[in-house]
Amino acid sequence: MIVGLIAGNIIGYFTEYYTSDHYKPTQLLSNEALTGPATTIIAGMSLGMLSTLIPVLTVIGATLAAFFLSGGAATPGLGLYGIGLSAVGMLSTLGITLATDAYGPVADNAGGIAEMAKMEPHVRERTDALDSLGNTTAATGKGFAIGSAALTALALLAEYVEIVRGADGHVTDVVMNINLLDPKILIGLFLGAMLPFVFSSLSMRAVGRAAGDMVNEVRRQFREKPGILEGTERPDYAGCVAISTQGAQREMVVPSLLAVIAPILTGIIFGPFTVIALLAGALTSGFVLAIMMANAGGAWDNAKKFIEGGAHGGKGSDAHKAAVVGDTVGDPFKDTSGPSINILLKLMSMVSIVFVTTVIALNDLFIRIFS
């Protein structure tokens, strides 16, 4: 548990390093805004990719330490139990992690209220500083969450193997001696590595479509109520809120079904041991992708805040306009796709465990039909 706690703090520290405007990475990212939106997006993507190095090495170290400290060398089952405990250790700071995660939106909305209420400029400056810190705390919270999700998914993967062994004896040897040269294992790894990317694509497209509907609604209101811009007519706020909430619910149906159907369908067609490879592939690619998205999005947002604080010409400059483009790209990265991968990994693992006996039975039927 102490290993997990230390690993969580290491991930949290380096998340802050890569996303806070008090450190070099985000400050250097703001420099890229001087040459336009394209270089800002390229530099942000590069920063996000680089930021995965320390979290991955930390999880590797925590996994090895937890496995061997709990007696995994002599009894592998105890080692896997130790990995599960390290995930609990990483989540032992859940109270403060949730508090800091919730702090960000509070500070952000306070700034929005200050701007809409036309309060003094210094009020907005203060809320911007709080909002910048909120972006970093949110990224730190997501780092804790996805790190613990990786360790939890590994423990769930071990549980799945145990259930398969107990449910169907004739696949025991295959499960315990997985051969990477087996086509079914390679198929599972490729399918699993692909799923976080498809899932992220669907969630990003959902954000894009909802944003497009919102823009059209705002344009319609401006066209039909010209007094809005002059302050003589009240906008229809409820219409915009309805577009966001209804769009969020409608667009999440397909990604949710993907997480449920993929492990079941894979197991029915290729067998339960291919599902193990599927979960392993999804875990490895999803963990890295989630860290990259969360950190890149936070860095883009804080690079914009850094420029608004007076760097590179300040608010309204060409550099600021480029940084706003980066921030707009970063929002679905850090607020939608990145955090949702955490849910994808855990949901796929739980669905696999719940339906394992059904999948084995249907896989036997599938083999008999097609043989």
From TrEMBL:
Membrane topology designation: Multi-pass membrane protein
| Principal place of residence | membrane
UniProt keyword list: Ion transport, Magnesium, Membrane, Translocase, Transmembrane, Transmembrane helix, Transport
Q: Please, which domain of life does this record's source organism belong to?
A: Eukaryota
Stored InterPro entries: PPase-energised_H-pump (IPR004131)
Report the transmembrane regions from the record.
41-69, 78-99, 185-204, 252-270, 276-296, 343-362
What's the Enzyme Commission number for this chain? 7.1.3.1
Q: Where in the cell is it found?
A: Endomembrane system
Annotated Gene Ontology MF terms?
Answer: diphosphate hydrolysis-driven proton transmembrane transporter activity; inorganic diphosphate phosphatase activity
Task: Tell me any Pfam family this protein matches.
Answer: H_PPase
Task: Provide the Gene Ontology terms for cellular component.
Answer: endomembrane system; membrane
PANTHER family on file: K(+)-INSENSITIVE PYROPHOSPHATE-ENERGIZED PROTON PUMP (PTHR31998)
Q: What is this protein called?
A: H(+)-exporting diphosphatase
The organism of origin for this protein: Geodia barretti
Which lineage? Eukaryota, Metazoa, Porifera, Demospongiae, Heteroscleromorpha
